[in-house]
Design a protein that fits this description.
By secondary structure, the chain is an alpha/beta fold. It has nine helices and twelve strands. It has three domains: 2-82, Arc Repressor Mutant, subunit A (Orthogonal Bundle); 89-162 and 270-294, 3-Layer(aba) Sandwich (D-Maltodextrin-Binding Protein, domain 2), CATH 3.40.190; 164-268, D-Maltodextrin-Binding Protein, domain 2 (3-Layer(aba) Sandwich). The protein is 38% helix and 26% strand. The strands form three sheets. Strands 3, 4, 5, 6, 7, 10, 11 and 12 form an eight-stranded mixed β-sheet that branches. Strands 1-2 form a two-stranded antiparallel ribbon.
Length: 297
């Protein structure tokens, strides 16, 4: 395992000097270990060009296998240690901006049951959160579905949560709607429109636009933004309106913005919790997922 770690670090760094520094060892012993691996395997793993290292086809294959083996080894150690540790430690959660509102109530109840668990919460789009999950920097993700990651979706286990209806959100200062509780889709055609969208995750944006087109109009987009909070600030200032999943509104006061049900549209946003399939999941993460299963919505 130590040799594989040496090899993988050298492959990742592309240079013996940098790899040795990362491993906190001298360069000559690392070079000898790499040479020894090649002699034992009877293949050339690196093409050496000056101080640089470039993997051969055999080296590329071993790199893929080494990454999987070392991760399996780490997972095994964590699982053995976790057998008797109980539900404690730091639970690392990743969430897309529009799902943050789903966490406070769950965390509150979870902390009452498991006070020895603390939380680390990261926010980002699907691509960033997918990378963090694969690196084991986070334990699970709360996100809109389908999950738009770079890798194949079959690597994730998914617990679907109740679907979230879309609602219109407009400035409270728009007096024509002060006494109303709902709105028709075609009325949205007259509004300057704000949309939640990043460069890589566009599913929700496309879902809203497609529903507008189904009702015979293209929304008049004046702003694309990756932050729910910024969009809410813009709406509160009277700049425009948006369509959001209803759960988002639980995190924002309705004194400066107004939420309206949409009368003639029945489109919803799917939500789920995701974690890596076939990998060790700490007890705290397992129990947190279970708390969503048990919750009544």
């Amino acid at each position: 395992m130590r040799q594989l770690k040496y090899f993988l670090t050298a492959a990742q760094e592309g240079q013996v000097t940098r790899a040795a520094k990362r491993l906190n060892m001298e360069q000559p012993p690392l070079s000898r270990q790499l040479k020894l691996m090649e002699e034992e395997l009877g293949v050339k793993l690196f093409n050496r060009n000056g101080k640089g290292l470039k993997l051969t086809p055999s080296g590329e294959l071993l790199k893929r296998k080494a990454e999987a083996l070392l991760q399996q080894f780490d997972d095994s150690i964590r699982e053995v240690k976790g057998m008797e540790e109980g539900v404690r430690g730091v639970l690392s959660i990743g969430s897309v901006v529009s799902c943050i509102s789903l966490l406070p109530e769950r965390i509150k109840h979870f902390r009452e049951k498991y006070p020895q668990v603390t939380f680390k919460i990261s926010e980002g789009d699907h691509f960033y959160l997918g990378e963090q999950l694969e690196k084991r920097a986070i334990d699970l993700i709360v996100a809109r579905l389908p999950f738009e990651a770079q890798t194949h979706p079959q690597q994730y286990s998914i617990l679907p949560l109740p679907s979230d209806p879309f609602v219109a959100v407009i400035p409270s200062s728009w007096g024509d709607y002060s006494g109303k509780q709902s709105i028709c889709m075609k009325e949205l055609a007259q509004f300057p429109f704000l949309t939640l969208k990043t460069d890589k995750t566009t599913r929700m944006h496309e879902q809203v636009v497609n529903e507008c087109k189904r009702h015979g109009f293209e929304p008049y987009m004046i702003c694309e933004c990756s932050s729910v909070a910024i969009i809410m600030s813009l709406i509160a200032s009277g700049i425009g309106a948006t369509v959001f999943p209803k759960s988002v509104m639980s995190s924002f006061p309705t004194t400066v913005v107004k939420m309206l049900d949409i009368e003639d549209a029945d489109f919803q946003s799917d939500v789920g919790i995701l974690w890596l399939k076939g990998h060790y999941l700490p007890k705290r993460a397992q129990q947190f997922i279970e708390s969503f299963r048990e919750a009544s919505y």
